[in-house]
Specification:
The chain has 272 residues and is α/β, with parallel strands linked by helices. The protein is built from ten helices and twelve strands. Strand 11, helix 8 and strand 12 form a beta-alpha-beta unit. Helix 5 crosses helix 6. The protein is globular and about 60 Å long. The model has no long low-confidence stretch (mean pLDDT 97). The protein binds 2'-monophosphoadenosine-5'-diphosphate. 2'-monophosphoadenosine-5'-diphosphate binds next to helix 6.
Length: 272
């Protein structure tokens, strides 16, 4: 039987994962089927176990189930433990392995696809939610000069920084950023999903070479618009992150790393 994979979320109708994994399978010659499942809020674990019982080999997990996916894993990775969330599961007999590839996917997109290595750079990360939790370990491992995290709810950012306890990670406040300058500014808040701008002072973009918006397919969000007005040369949304995290999962499941560039090109919606 052909190996089965699926993405589970709610709602799931807009997911690009079956398209991405279908392209990966075709270009790397892997025999697999990849579907989409609308998960139930009452019985997420049941949905996963049913898929597994029907021969499922692995799943991608999207909102709102990443936390529950982590909780039902028998072997979460360190990244998943820190994020307290899983975006990929692998089933091996009774074992349920969990991973979180969101942060590493974001890092690969910035460093490899966009050509901006973090090493030695001053990096500003907006937000302290699930997306930031996933990004912190890979970002710190990339050796920035400093990684500054800001969040409206300052206690949340402070708590997260304390959990990590890394000398290169510092928490600031939005108002305190007036005098600070960064090389890379990354919006990992959910503000853009509702058309809002995080209260970031325009000056943080003064010497920035890249402004990155995690939301995908929203065009020039208020964050990217501000960065553009401030003259930031490179603007990006989360399409590359989406494809790179999928490639990490594909490689984890299949032992083969697919080519991502053609898939990113196919999914890119111009920023305008
Ligand atoms: P995700 O998993 O996408 O990170 P989340 O865990 O709900 O989602 O976190 C959302 C993040 O976006 C939080 O850091 C939130 O800030 P607060 O913790 O202060 O609420 C941030 N956020 C949402 N809307 C925002 C806005 N309009 N301006 C600034 N930050 C915002």
């Amino acid at each position: 039987m052909t190996d089965q994979y699926a993405v589970i979320g709610r709602p799931i109708n807009h997911t690009k994962s079956p398209l991405i994994h279908g392209l990966f399978a075709a270009t790397s010659g892997q025999d697999l089927e990849y579907g989409a499942i609308e998960g139930s809020l009452e019985d997420f674990a049941g949905d996963v176990h049913r898929f597994c019982a029907q021969g499922g080999r692995g799943m991608n997990i999207t909102a709102p189930f990443k936390l529950q996916a982590f909780q039902l894993a028998t072997e979460p990775s360190e990244r998943a433990r820190l994020a307290k969330a899983a975006n990929a599961l692998k089933f091996e007999g009774e074992r349920v392995l969990a991973e979180n590839f969101d942060g590493i996917g974001l890092l690969r997109d910035i460093e490899v696809n966009l050509g901006q290595p973090l090493a030695g750079k001053r990096v500003l990360l907006l937000g302290a939610g699930g997306a930031v939790r996933g990004a912190l370990l890979p970002f710190l491992a990339a050796g920035p000069a400093e990684l500054v995290m800001v969040n409206r709810d300052e206690q949340k950012a402070a708590g997260l920084a304390q959990e990590i306890g890394h000398p290169l990670l510092r928490v600031s406040r939005y108002e305190a950023l007036e005098e600070e300058r960064f090389d890379l500014v990354i919006n990992a808040t959910s503000a853009s999903l509702v058309g809002e701008l995080p209260p970031v002072p325009a000056g943080v973009f003064d010497r920035a070479v890249l402004a990155y918006e995690l939301a995908y397919g929203k065009g020039l969000t208020p964050f990217l618009r501000l960065a553009k007005e401030q003259g930031v040369a490179q603007l990006a949304d989360g399409v590359g992150m989406l494809v790179e995290q999928a490639a990490e999962a594909f490689a984890w499941w299949r032992g083969v790393r697919p080519e991502t560039r053609p898939v990113i090109d196919q999914l890119t919606i111009p920023l305008q």
